[in-house]
């Protein structure tokens, strides 16, 4: 990740590296200088570069430092399956997996995810090859309008790897961060129970 602005210390560190490198030949020095110039140009624009693996594919983005992970996924990578509901961490519509754990993408800055593995609903399964949780939501009508559904499914699949008890109340508690305005909760519960049983 490129720094938002090069600190004096960071600049001196780079110069120090460059100084040591001078004994290693001109091309290395030229490369280092180019990298410094590129990072500074980005910083001057208020941008940073971040590289993350999204659905198994490495992606390098140049984003405004304030860009959320949610907006990076939707606006920069056109992965619009992840939804923006409240944009305040209250509804769970934006849930994705970061290194296998569920996260509200609207509460996380993209530049915090250098080197992270991100999975969105598009990476979970596709038509014709659905993840068992996606299939269970279809089988049990675990949605009405569908706006909350990708977040529900991402949360539910992450929950399978978390230490929750076997009861319905445990599932409800585990899923309490995902709000469904259509009130499809009963069918969502049935879908999750099917996958947990299987
Ligand atoms: Fe992220 Fe609502 S959009 S929690
Ligand atoms: Fe409409 Fe959940 S299915 S908000």
Brief digest:
The protein is an alpha+beta fold and 198 residues long. The chain contains 8 helices and 5 strands. A hairpin with a 2-residue loop joins β3 (95-98) and β4 (101-104).
How would you characterize the overall build of this protein?
- The chain has a five-stranded mixed beta sheet with strand order 2-1-5-3-4, with helices on both faces.
- The protein is built from eight helices and five strands, in the order H-H-E-E-H-E-E-E-H-H-H-H-H.
- Strand 3 (95-98) and strand 4 (101-104) form a beta hairpin.
- It is α+β, with helices and mostly antiparallel strands and 198 residues long.
- The protein is elongated.
- It is 42% helix and 14% strand.
- It has three domains: 3-44, no CATH class; 47-124, Beta-grasp domain (Ubiquitin-like (UB roll)); 132-197, DNA polymerase, domain 1 (Orthogonal Bundle), CATH 1.10.150.
- The two termini are 41 Å apart.
- Bound molecules: FE2/S2 (inorganic) cluster (FES) (2 copies).
Quickly list its features:
single chain, 198 residues, alpha+beta, Ubiquitin-like (UB roll), DNA polymerase, domain 1, five-stranded mixed β-sheet, disordered N terminus, binds FE2/S2 (inorganic) cluster
List the helices and strands and how they pair.
Elements: H1 8-21, H2 26-44, E1 47-54, E2 57-64, H3 69-76, E3 95-98, E4 101-104, E5 117-119, H4 121-124, H5 132-139, H6 149-159, H7 168-174, H8 185-197
Parallel strand pairs: 1-5
Antiparallel strand pairs: 1-2, 3-4, 3-5
Helix pairs in contact: 1-2, 5-8
The structure holds FE2/S2 (inorganic) cluster (FES) (2 copies).
The site of one FE2/S2 (inorganic) cluster has 12 residues, from loops.
């Amino acid at each position: 990740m490129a720094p938002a602005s090069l600190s004096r210390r960071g600049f001196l560190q780079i110069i120090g590296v460059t100084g040591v490198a001078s004994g290693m030949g001109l091309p290395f020095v030229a490369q280092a200088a180019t990298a410094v110039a590129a990072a500074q140009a980005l910083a001057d624009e208020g941008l940073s570069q971040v590289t993350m693996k999204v659905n198994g594919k490495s992606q390098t983005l140049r984003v405004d430092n304030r860009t959320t992970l949610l907006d990076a996924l939707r606006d920069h990578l056109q992965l619009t399956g992840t939804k923006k509901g409240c944009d305040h961490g209250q509804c769970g519509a934006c849930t994705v997996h970061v290194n296998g754990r569920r996260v509200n993408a609207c509460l996380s800055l993209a530049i915090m995810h250098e080197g992270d593995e991100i999975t969105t609903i598009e990476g979970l399964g596709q038509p014709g090859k659905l993840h068992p949780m996606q299939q269970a939501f279809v089988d049990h009508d675990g949605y009405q309008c569908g706006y909350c559904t990708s977040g529900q499914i991402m949360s539910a699949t992450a929950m399978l790897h978390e230490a929750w008890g076997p009861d319905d109340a445990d599932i409800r508690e585990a899923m309490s961060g995902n709000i469904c305005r259509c009130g499809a909760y009963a069918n969502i519960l049935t879908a999750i129970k099917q996958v947990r049983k299987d």
